[in-house]
Amino acid sequence: xxxxxxxxxxxxIIPEVRLRPDEEIVIPGWGGSILCHPQKLPxxxxxxxxxxxxxxxxxxxxxxxGALQKHFIKDIPMTTLEFASLxxxxxWPNVALPIIGGYLIDTIFGxxxxxxxxxxxxxxxxxxxxxxxxxxxxxxxxxxxxxxxIGGESLAVAQNTYAASWFSGDTLNRVFGFxxxxxxFGSSVNYWTVGKIYDSLLPKFDHGYTALGWTLMIAxxxxxxxxxxxxxxxVIDKRAKTILKKDDIASDPISLKDIVKFPLxxxxxxxxxxxxxxxxxxxxxxxxxxxxxxYNLGVQEANVxxxxxxxxxxxxxxxxxxxxxKVGRNLTFVLTAVFFTLxxxxxxAFTFWNPYIPICVMGMSYSLLASALWPICTLIxxxxxxxxxxxxxxxxxxxxxxxxxxxxxxxxxxxxxIWLEIYFIFWLTIAIIATLTMWLIDLNFxxxxxNMDAGTRNARTEALKxxxxxxxxxxxxxxxx
Length: 481
Fold this sequence. Notes:
With about 475 residues, this protein is mainly α. About 75% of the residues lie in helices and about 0% in strands.
């Protein structure tokens, strides 16, 4: 945890405070106004605004290659495998970072310095990536994506840590949902805008790769917005912690020795996670050329259609999360999401129906799975091992997102996009098998706890809490909140 520096003449002057009976701190002068008081909602909303900007640049630039796929392949030029490797290089550092990223933020850097450092990584990575475009260098572009990946996922950890520090209870759930929506919206904005930027720059240069490099350079502006937001948010947070005399929140440390204690259902859940997400993110990254070829679309229309996956999720995820929170039945929703995503890929592979139909189905299914799958982990793993569990799930997910796109690139280069869709269908079939296996294990050995309705599960949890105290190693009591 970050240690506070000793007081000096350059430290901000914090007015003396006194506590009211309701524990709200009274601050004289402008510092006590609703926009400046750290306990007032308007000030918290101001902090939330910068929390959202903190991750916006990362999400906007992550899918820059996907929105410019045709131009990467034509202008650099590169094979589909080399193009897909741009996403793999982003994911490789995040096979390890979920294990150590939280530790670095909690123990070494502190949340404020950590956010600034990781914000600097995404800026540096995007600049190197853009420089690779300007110099027609695939190796330099891959290096930039690797550096960008070091910052991207860890910046999301910092963003969530800030949210948990400023909000609590039901409000925290809504804040997390809002942050996810803004992140997905950032990805959608990328698909709407970056192609137009390229088109406006292309007539000004002799080479397409130069226009591509400058397009990526302009996109890097959003990363600098995130970096500036990390600095501003750090100042706001430090002032609030000083006034409220609060310490930074430290998450549970990840312990590799806990891995052997995880039940089979955890590994099945991780299998569903990785085999599902490798059919969404790699598809989105490679969808532009596929949609153009199969449906005879222009670049911009293909980008708008691809961005719909994220746009639908931006609006649907908070709503679906609230519904699942109240209804329960998580496994049923996970199976439904995987099945309809499989159906969407089958429509894309074997029919010529209007592409908006399968894309919208995929967007809704993606939103449903994200809302239903991750909470299951809290129902399986004991509370003191949740940090380890989430870290392992993210590491496995990123390992899949590093390897599967390479396979996708090889398939497209050698066999075409229909076989790419069959490749995705294969992974979704594994996801369905893993979900059904988890369902059967839960039914036979756990009284269908993972798939209970929320009311029944809460009643059972409360009854267990009254019967025995919660000790280390006991399952986590779960509520629908």
